């Protein structure tokens, strides 16, 4: 399957600007994990390993749900199912865009689906503490990536609805890369970039792009029927299943 660059761009922007909503929670977690190497103020190496583990956790989750979605698409050979999944994937991106516009945090994305899984993983997280070795730091970061969160759960749902393991894994990788500038604790770039991204104009611009990506994803199966648009949409990786 072609790589869906529209979904990747939306996931990257969602991670970059959406992580501002999670700064109160994830920022504290990042700072705490950044010092798990035994240093009071943490180190960039520890922070990098923990966040790399978190990114790997996102990718593995995307790979898993993408494979499940592809299996469902093959198992249920119903006419129009692929188109329906793509429309739903676009609808999820639209919901994420609306969340980015919600400065006062009145609109919440559903994140309770992973609560049951996290109750099962929480004891394993406690066993990894204190994470004083690189291996433990990587594993702790992977578990952090599976912490229930409305934003990451929504992107994971969009990844599953793509019904393609490669695009799903790349979508979650793009989302994780987008969160790195803010989630890498105790670094100059994270602090300074976070202040800039908090400006309303930047957030509105990102939300508009994610919203456009969601609408394009939803309408791609029909737009691909227009000969003049087939080449452009094909280059972007849009498909109609």
From TrEMBL:
* The Urease accessory protein UreH-like transmembrane domain, residue ranges: 10-215
Top-rank taxon? Bacteria
| Keyword Repeat on entry | no
The membrane-spanning stretches of this chain are 58-76, 83-101, 138-159, 165-184, 205-224
Database matches in InterPro entries: UreH-like_TM_dom
- Give the record's keywords alphabetically: Membrane, Transmembrane, Transmembrane helix
Key word Transmembrane helix present in the record?
yes
Its name, as the record gives it, is: Urease accessory protein UreH-like transmembrane domain-containing protein
| Natural source organism | Tahibacter aquaticus
């Amino acid at each position: 399957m072609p790589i869906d660059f529209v979904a990747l761009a939306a996931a990257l922007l969602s991670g970059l600007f959406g992580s501002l909503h999670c700064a109160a929670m994830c920022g504290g977690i990042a700072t705490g994990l950044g010092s798990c190497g035994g240093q009071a103020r943490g180190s960039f190496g520890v922070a990098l390993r923990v966040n790399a583990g978190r990114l790997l956790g996102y990718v593995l989750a995307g790979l898993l749900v993408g494979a499940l979605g592809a299996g469902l698409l093959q198992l249920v050979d119903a006419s129009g199912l692929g188109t329906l999944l793509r429309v739903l994937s676009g609808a999820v991106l639209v919901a994420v865009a609306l969340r980015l516009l919600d400065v006062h945090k009145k609109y919440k994305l559903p994140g309770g689906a992973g609560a049951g899984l996290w109750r099962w993983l929480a004891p394993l997280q406690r066993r990894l503490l204190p994470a004083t070795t690189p291996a433990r730091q990587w594993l702790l970061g992977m578990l952090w990536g599976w912490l229930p969160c409305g934003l990451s759960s929504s992107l994971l749902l969009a990844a599953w609805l793509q019904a393609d393991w490669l695009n799903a894994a790349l979508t979650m990788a793009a989302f994780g890369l987008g969160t790195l500038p803010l989630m890498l604790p105790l670094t100059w770039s994270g602090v300074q970039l976070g202040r800039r991204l908090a400006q309303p104009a930047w957030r509105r611009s990102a939300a508009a792009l994610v919203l456009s990506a969601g609408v394009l994803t939803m309408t791609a199966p029909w737009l691909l029927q227009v000969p003049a648009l087939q080449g452009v949409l094909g280059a972007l990786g849009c498909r109609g299943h």
